[in-house]
Design brief:
Chains A, B: Pfam families: LacI, Peripla_BP_3. Chains A, B: One of its GO terms (molecular function) is DNA-binding transcription factor activity. The structure is a homodimer of 337-residue chains. Chain A has 337 residues and is α/β, with parallel strands linked by helices. The first copy, chain A, has helices at residues 4-11, 15-22, 30-43, 49-56, 72-87, 106-116, 129-135, 163-176, 196-208, 222-232, 247-259, 277-281, 293-309, and strands at residues 61-66, 91-96, 120-123, 142-145, 158-160, 182-189, 192-193, 215-219, 241-244, 269-274, 287-290, 319-321, 326-328. Chain A is built from 13 helices and 13 strands. In chain A, helix 11 links the parallel strand 9 (241-244) and strand 10. Chain B binds a DNA duplex (16 and 16 nucleotides) through helix 2 and helix 4.
DNA sequence: CTGTTAGCGCATTCAG
DNA sequence: CTGAATGCGCTAACAG
C-alpha cells in the first residue's frame, strides 16, 4: 500500500509538497510538480479516503436509510442517489433501518451517522416519525426524502413532492374518462395509511366531482393490491375504475381483474402512482402518475451534501417540493364503459 | 462531537484506559471501569469508525460492485448482502461499476477499493472479465459472486452456484411434463450470451432427451423476453414450452403468450431461473428454479470478510459452489398439450 | 515556492 | 492496573 510518505521519499520532497501537488493547490513549481506526479503515477498511488476524512473532518460517504431495498421504488431511488452522490465525489452507504424482526436498529444508525458518513438521508415513506427523530444522533446532518405529507413533516429538512397533487391527477384522469364508480385502494401498514396525502388528494378531487370514494386499505405490495381488488370487484355495482395510491397496488389490481375475467382497460380501468419501472413493463402497461423519482433523488442527495458542507444551508424545517407529478397514459385506463 | 479524549478528561483517566474499558479488554479496575462507562453513556459517546479504521488498519465497510441496482435480482442480493455484512459489523457501500455512458469507472473503484472499503464484492454476471481484473487495484481483497461459469472463472476467489444444474433442472421439469417442442430463451448482452452455463445445462439435458433446442438470444429483461417470445410463438409448429434462462425473460414470455392469445400454462408452459420475488407475484406465477440468492449473498460476504481478515484464507482461485438449485413449481407450467 | 509542525480520533505497545 | 508515547495517512496552518 503506497502512501503519501513513500512517494515523498522517492521524489525527494516533503509530504506536504506531495499533498499540494496532488490536490492541485498550485503552490508548487512546475518541475517538482511533474516529478511528484510521475512518481505517484508510477507507484500507483491512491490517497486513503479514511485518512483524508479524518484529517479534514469530512467523510466521503453519505448513508441512505430505508426500510426495504428490494422494493422496486427504493432500489430505483438508491440507484439515482448513488449517481448523484458520485457526481459530488461521495459514496453511498445503504442501511436498512430495521432489523430482521422489524424493530428500528438505532445502534447501527448511531455508528454510521455523522462519522462514517457525513450525513443521513432518510427515505421516509415507511419509517415512523418518532422513531426517526430519536434514531439519528443529534447534530448529524439529516435530510428526509419522500415524506408523504409535506404539510406536516418532522422538524428536519425535507425533500419531497406534492403527493396530494399526484393523487388529484390520478383521480382527475379517471373522472375525465367518465368514470363514476371509482374504488380507491390505499397503501397501509397495519391499519395506518402510509399514503395519506395521495389519498386525500384523490378523494378530495373525487368528492369535488360528486363521486364518493371510500378507500380500502391494504399492505403496499402486488399481493396486497390483488387481495384488495378481489374484494372490491365483488361489489355490486362493480367499480369501473380503481385508483391505487401506489403502482404495486395497481399492478395487483390488474392481476385481480384478470382473474375475475374482467378486461383491462375495457371493463376496468386502473391507475397507479409513482411510475416505477415495472409499471411500463406490465401487460397491460399501467397508467400512472410519474413523480420523477430521479429528480427527487438528485435533490435529496444535493440537499444533504449542501447541509454537510454548510450546516446552516437549510433551515431545520426547510421544505423542498421537487418536480410536478405528471400523468403517464398507458394501457390500463380507458373511457368508462 | 464527543471524543475519547473528552470522556477521558471528565472521567479523570487517560485515553488508553477509556479505550480499554470500552473495548472490554479487561485490564481495568471495576470502579474506574464503571465510572468511564457512566461518563461515556452520559455524553452519548460514539467511537469514530474512521479513526478506528485508520488506527487498526481495518475498514468497517465492504464495497459491492454491480451493473444495475434497479434490477430486482441485484437489489435482492444487495439487501441480503447488507444484512450479512451487518452481522459482522460492516457497512455496505454500493457502487455502480459503470458510468451512465456504460464504460467502467475505474477511478471510482480505485478510490473505494481497499481503503474506504476493506474489500470488494463483484457481482459478476454482467461485468466483463477483462474489465474486472483491471479495474480492481492489485492486492485488494476481492470476491467474485454469481459468476456464470464456475468451470471458467477469473483468477479471483469466486462464490457462485451450479448454473449448469439450474439449467438442467428447468429442462428436466419441462421434459417430465411431456414437452418436446421447447424453445430456449437466453439472456445476452449484444450478441454474447450472459447465461452460458444455464444455457448449456439446459440444452445438454434437452439433447439427452432427443429434443433439439436452438436458443434465442435476447437482452435480459421483461421487454426482451416479450420481444423474443413474440417471434418464437409465430413458429410452426409452435413450441409448447419456453425455457428462459432468467425470470425476467420468462415473465416477458408469459406476457407475450397473453398477447398471442395463448393460455399459460394450458397451451404454453414457461419456466424461468433465479426465483426473484417478482416470479411469485406474477399471474400466472412463474415456475422457476430457485438458486437461493440469500445463501449466496451470505456466503459471498462471509468469504470476502474472511479474506479481509486473513488474506490467505482463500486461494487466489478458490471456488465455492453454494447451495443446490431447486425447482419451484408454480402456475406457469403444466402437462404438455 | 518548499519543508516543518501539528493535529484528526483512536488503538496499541511499553514503562511505571 | 494505569498513563504516556507512538503511529495510522493525510491536511492545514505556519515558517523558512
Amino acid at each position: 500500500m503506497t502512501t503519501l510518505r513513500d512517494i515523498a521519499l522517492i521524489a525527494g520532497v516533503s509530504g506536504a509538497t506531495v499533498s499540494n501537488v496532488l490536490r492541485n493547490r498550485g503552490f508548487v513549481g512546475a518541475e517538482t510538480s511533474a516529478r511528484v506526479r510521475e512518481v505517484a503515477q508510477r507507484l500507483g498511488y491512491r490517497p486513503n479516503p479514511m485518512a483524508q476524512a479524518l484529517a479534514n473532518g469530512r467523510a466521503p460517504t453519505i448513508a441512505m436509510v430505508f426500510s426495504d431495498l428490494a422494493n422496486p421504488f427504493y432500489s430505483m431511488f438508491a440507484l439515482e442517489a448513488e449517481r448523484a452522490a458520485r457526481r459530488r465525489d461521495h459514496f453511498l452507504l445503504v442501511c436498512h433501518a430495521a432489523k430482521p424482526d422489524g424493530t428500528l436498529d438505532t445502534a447501527y444508525l448511531g455508528a454510521v451517522a455523522g462519522r462514517l458518513s457525513g450525513g443521513v438521508l432518510i427515505l421516509g415513506s415507511d419509517l415512523g416519525r418518532a422513531d426517526l427523530l430519536s434514531a439519528v444522533p443529534n447534530g448529524v446532518p439529516t435530510v428526509l426524502a419522500m415524506w408523504e405529507d409535506a404539510a406536516d413533516h418532522p422538524s428536519l429538512p425535507c425533500v419531497t413532492l406534492d403527493f396530494r397533487e399526484a393523487g388529484r391527477l390520478a383521480a382527475d384522469h379517471l373522472l375525465a374518462l367518465g368514470h363514476r364508480r371509482i374504488a380507491v385502494l390505499a397503501g397501509a401498514r397495519g391499519d395506518r395509511v402510509s399514503h395519506g396525502a395521495r389519498l386525500e388528494g384523490a378523494t378530495a378531487r373525487l368528492r369535488e366531482a360528486g363521486v364518493l370514494g371510500g378507500a380500502t386499505l391494504e399492505e403496499d405490495s402486488i399481493g396486497g393490491g390483488h387481495r384488495a381488488a378481489m374484494r372490491l370487484l365483488e361489489a355490486e355495482p362493480r367499480p369501473t375504475a380503481i385508483l391505487a395510491t401506489n403502482d404495486l397496488l395497481g399492478i395487483g389490481a390488474i392481476q385481480a381483474a384478470g382473474e375475475r375475467g374482467l378486461a383491462v382497460p375495457r371493463e376496468l380501468s386502473v391507475v397507479g402512482i409513482t411510475d416505477i419501472w415495472l409499471a411500463a413493463e406490465m401487460r397491460p402497461a399501467l397508467t400512472t402518475v410519474d413523480i420523477d423519482t430521479r429528480r427527487i433523488a438528485d435533490a435529496s442527495v444535493n440537499a444533504l451534501l449542501d447541509l454537510i458542507a454548510e450546516p446552516d444551508a437549510l433551515a431545520r424545517d426547510a421544505l423542498r417540493i421537487v418536480g410536478r407529478p405528471s400523468l403517464v397514459r398507458r394501457a390500463s385506463t380507458a373511457q368508462a364503459p
